């Protein structure tokens, strides 16, 4: 019915009106294009630097490729990849980054959505208080917690003989702990929009809490879950600070640590940095495009009047 | 199949609001019972307690021969149609209907059969693969009904399932539900605030006000013998007229007068009114029972000034006023009354309902009177 009513005015409108472009739109588009170019130029520059010979960096600007495209080469990539998976190489850094980021993303999304489910649909007292406590944790700056948590890890390590500090697992735990407040906040707010009637219909249909979560609430929450997953992934992927402290002494470094290691006071390895940066962009891009299709709007359409 | 017994069913919300107060109702297997009452009277709350969605404060719900107070909804053998449809937005119509059966591990072939059959009954076959968001309100409503019927529960609970439909669809779906009830022979508890819906659909109607059951009975019972003023005013459309009359004794005869009306009770009424010794009584009479013919024996006559005349075809609806009190009448259109005209309307004794003005209870002889006359023993 909405299709009919929506198409009716268009059909009766004169042709001219349908294609008229308002001046404000043109201005808007120009501004948007300018912003896009402004943001894209550095990335394009780095992409081109990574595709030029190492020596060319000192001799000419990257924009010369537009007049002399012959200088483009995959040599830098070949050289970086040739080190294989040895610690200190880019492929090892890539695997380490994945080993940290993927578990963190999965853990944060799963735990957040389960917690949010309980906070919204559970029937226990003190739900609001717990939620407020979690929101309060949002304002805690991560930087403030780095040293105390690191000391905690050391105390833990000393008393158990394990090696949490400096390990991938320790880094994951830290990231998850700091990702959860926002994740729970986001998912709770999204789940709050789901009518309780839906769950009650499910209960009458015979669903237990677990089935309700899996079959009713989670599918509806997918757009929120997808955005949470993307945010979390990119945040952890790009993290340098946490990795710097919690992976210190570990032969396996994340990509950010790997790139950081190439920055020197006097002569940085620009070819390694540009090539490594391009490699580190690829994975988040894949994640983004893979999850993007879940950003469907109007997931709740038709649920209740 | 099973009957439902509500035994002193009570709900007090955390805030202290008493939503349902000692509700007693014995619903027989296969019966169609309507819970009706004004908004906020506790109908939904009562239904939700039967469904197991709301904790019971005190009292009992029995379905079949089991006390179900502590059973979760899924173990009560019920299906519910929600006031808001509550369809799963991410599932197709087919999956919405199949969900309950899938959870009960019904074989796939049986599920398909049940869903297709329900879709056929409800004329939803074309929409089976659509999502609820792509359906009209009426179609969504039917999916909600379909989801309930595929389960073949012992008891159907419906919370104002027609409230979102337009007039035409409402009549259609009403018939659909009535047919469904005949075919499935299941017990149905149907909540509505629309007394017309209740009158046309229910085998029995339970009128609730402010959480308290006012009267339960067949539509005819409620129409002819309302037990109190609330039920009398709630059932029937347009609703019943009420006039307060003063009781006076003129020699041996009892006379009731007031607000431009006069009532001559018959002999038994007179005797009972004398025994009760009330100063005033409220007399109720339905618009459709008024006539312009003059009264020859006992009965009520009221003189009104006509304010509005609505032509209904065969009849006309008169809004009049008598000493400041509104009186509505439906009379034969041949009478052609004009606005501003003064007219005397009358009703025979068997169409009059007397109520105690303080308790609101019907003044009547015990048991249904054979001649339908409102007799004069207070039930209170
Ligand atoms: N969760 C709740 N907490 C406190 N009071 C409630 C709650 N739900 C309902 N009530 C109160 O209980 C009373 C009965 O509500 P209920 O929803 O049963 O009414 P209803 O008869 O279904 O009305 P309607 O016709 O408007 O749907 C109302 O006064 C309402 O304010
Ligand atoms: Mg209600």
Report on the structure:
The complex is a heterodimer of chains A (305) and B (380). Chain A is an all-alpha fold. Chain A has two domains: 25-73, no CATH class; 86-303, Orthogonal Bundle (MetI-like fold), CATH 1.10.3720.10. Chain A has helices at 2-12, 15-19, 23-50, 56-59, 75-82, 90-121, 127-138, 142-160, 168-192, 196-205, 209-237, 241-246, 255-261, 270-292. Chain B has 380 residues and is an alpha+beta fold. In chain B, the strands form three sheets. In chain B, strands 11, 12, 13, 14, 15, 16, 17, 18 and 19 form a nine-stranded antiparallel sheet that branches. Chain B has nine helices and 19 strands. Chain B is elongated, with a radius of gyration of 25 Å. Chain B has helices spanning 43-51, 93-103, 108-121, 137-149, 167-184, 195-201, 219-224, 229-234, 267-276, and strands at 4-12, 18-27, 32-36, 58-63, 66-67, 78-81, 155-159, 187-192, 204-209, 212-217, 241-250, 253-258, 261-264, 280-285, 299-311, 315-322, 325-332, 342-347, 353-355. Classes of the chains: A mainly alpha (305), B alpha+beta (380). At the A-B interface, helix 10 and helix 11 of A face strand 6, helix 2 and helix 4 of B. The site of magnesium ion (MG) has 4 residues of chain B, from helix 1.
Could you give a short description of this structure?
With 305 residues, chain A is an all-alpha fold. Chain A has helices spanning 2-12, 15-19, 23-50, 56-59, 75-82, 90-121, 127-138, 142-160, 168-192, 196-205, 209-237, 241-246, 255-261, 270-292. The model of chain A is unreliable at 1-15 (pLDDT under 50).
């Amino acid at each position: 019915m909405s299709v009919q009513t929506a198409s009716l005015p268009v059909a009766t409108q004169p042709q001219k009106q349908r294609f008229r472009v308002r001046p404000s739109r043109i201005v808007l588009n120009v501004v948007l294009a300018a912003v896009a170019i402004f943001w894209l130029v550095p990335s394009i520059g780095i992409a081109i630097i990574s595709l030029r010979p190492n020596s060319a960096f000192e001799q000419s600007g990257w924009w010369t490729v537009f007049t002399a495209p012959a200088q483009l080469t995959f040599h830098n990539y070949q050289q970086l990849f040739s080190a294989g998976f040895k610690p200190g190489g880019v492929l090892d850094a890539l695997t380490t980054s994945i080993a940290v980021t993927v578990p963190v993303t999965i853990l944060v999304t799963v735990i957040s959505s389960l917690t949010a489910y309980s906070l919204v649909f559970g029937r226990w007292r003190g739900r609001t208080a717990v939620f407020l406590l979690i929101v309060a944790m949002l304002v805690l700056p991560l930087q403030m917690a780095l040293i105390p948590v690191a000391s905690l890890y050391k105390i833990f390590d000393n008393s158990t003989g394990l090696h949490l500090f400096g390990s991938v697992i320790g880094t994951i735990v830290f990231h998850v702990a700091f990702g959860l407040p926002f994740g729970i906040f986001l998912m709770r707010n999204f789940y709050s929009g789901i009518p309780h009637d839906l769950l009650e219909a499910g209960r009458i249909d015979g669903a237990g809490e677990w089935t309700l979560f899996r079959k009713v609430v989670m599918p509806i929450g997918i757009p929120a879950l997808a955005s949470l997953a993307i945010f979390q992934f990119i945040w952890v992927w790009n993290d340098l600070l946490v990795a710097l402290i919690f992976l210190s002494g570990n032969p396996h470094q994340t990509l950010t640590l790997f790139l950081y290691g190439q920055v020197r006071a006097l002569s940085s390895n620009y070819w390694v940095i540009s090539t490594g940066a391009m490699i580190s962009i690829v994975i988040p891009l894949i994640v983004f495009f893979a999850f993007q299709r879940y950003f469907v709007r109007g997931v709740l359409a038709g649920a209740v009047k | 199949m099973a009957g439902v017994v509500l035994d002193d069913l009570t709900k007090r919300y955390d805030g202290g609001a008493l939503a349902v107060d000692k509700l007693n109702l014995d619903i027989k297997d296969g019966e169609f019972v309507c819970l009706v009452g004004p908004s906020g009277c506790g109908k939904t709350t009562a239904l939700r307690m039967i469904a197991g969605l709301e904790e019971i404060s005190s009292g009992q719900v029995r379905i079949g021969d089991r006390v179900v107070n502590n059973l979760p909804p899924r173990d009560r053998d019920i299906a519910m149609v929600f006031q808001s449809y509550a369809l799963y937005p991410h599932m197709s119509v087919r999956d919405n209907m199949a969900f309950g059966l899938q959870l009960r591990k019904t074989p796939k072939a049986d599920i398909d059969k049940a869903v297709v059959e329900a879709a056929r009954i409800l004329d939803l076959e074309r929409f089976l693969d659509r999502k609820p968001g792509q359906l009209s309100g009426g179609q969504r409503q039917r999916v909600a009904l379909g989801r309930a019927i595929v389960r073949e529960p012992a008891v159907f609970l419906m919370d104002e399932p027609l409230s979102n439909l337009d007039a035409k669809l409402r009549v259609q779906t009403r018939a659909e539900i009535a047919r469904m009830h005949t075919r499935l022979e299941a017990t149905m508890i149907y909540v509505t605030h629309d007394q017309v819906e209740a009158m046309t659909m229910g085998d029995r109607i339970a009128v609730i006000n402010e959480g308290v059951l006012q009267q339960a009975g067949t539509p005819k019972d409620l129409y002819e013998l309302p037990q109190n003023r609330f039920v009398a005013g709630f059932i029937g459309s347009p609703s019943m007229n009420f006039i307060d009359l003063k009781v006076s004794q003129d020699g041996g005869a009892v006379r009731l007068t007031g607000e431009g009306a006069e009532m001559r009770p018959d002999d038994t009424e007179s005797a009972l009114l004398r025994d009760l010794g009330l100063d005033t009584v409220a007399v109720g009479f339905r618009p459709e029972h008024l006539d312009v013919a003059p009264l020859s024996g006992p009965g009520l006559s009221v003189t009104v000034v006509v304010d509005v005349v609505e032509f209904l075809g065969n009849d006309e609806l008169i809004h009049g006023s008598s000493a400041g009190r509104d009186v509505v009448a439906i009379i034969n259109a041949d009478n052609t009354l004009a606005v501003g005209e003064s007219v005397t309307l009358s009703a025979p004794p068997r169409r009059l309902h007397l109520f105690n003005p303080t308790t609101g209870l019907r003044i009547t002889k015990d048991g249904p009177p054979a001649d339908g006359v409102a007799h004069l023993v207070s039930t209170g």
